[in-house]
Amino acid sequence: MPDSNRIYIIGFMGSGKSTAGKKLASLLGWSFIDLDKRIEKQAGKTIPEIFSQQGEDYFRNVEAEVLKNLMSQTNIVISTGGGTPCHGDNMDYMLKTGLTLYLKLTPGQLKSRLSESTGKRPLIKDLDEESLLGFIEEKLALREKWYNRAEITVEGINLDISLLYSLVKSSLNI
Fold it and tell me: pTM above the 0.90 mark?
């Protein structure tokens, strides 16, 4: 792992990356960036608008560009989008430039969290309850090969932020 003061939190949509990232950044006294919010700010559009107007490929290119533009930032916790590690060389880049942390949940746990927010998320906006679980199972099976490359993996349900903080401090020798 690189000598870094940058942490990337990865995991499926709804896994709690932003919530955990904010808490972890606060405990470390570091800054927090939600990659999706940064993309929206730069694009002047919401993620659903980008998906519907320009498509997923365009979004993924912007996502990779915004991710790499954070290189000059230090003492930072970055919450990525669920698909960020799975496109282009993003996972390799994150492994080279920081500590990667995977918040792992089961498909059932993710469905429970996501069933209330389908309209806000472009990849699941048109899915009913039954289709949602199938989508999560299929997408998670595809994405786990990237997620599992993270240096730290923790269960995302009932996440113990103090334990996470200790794991991070130990990994970064701080």
Answer: yes
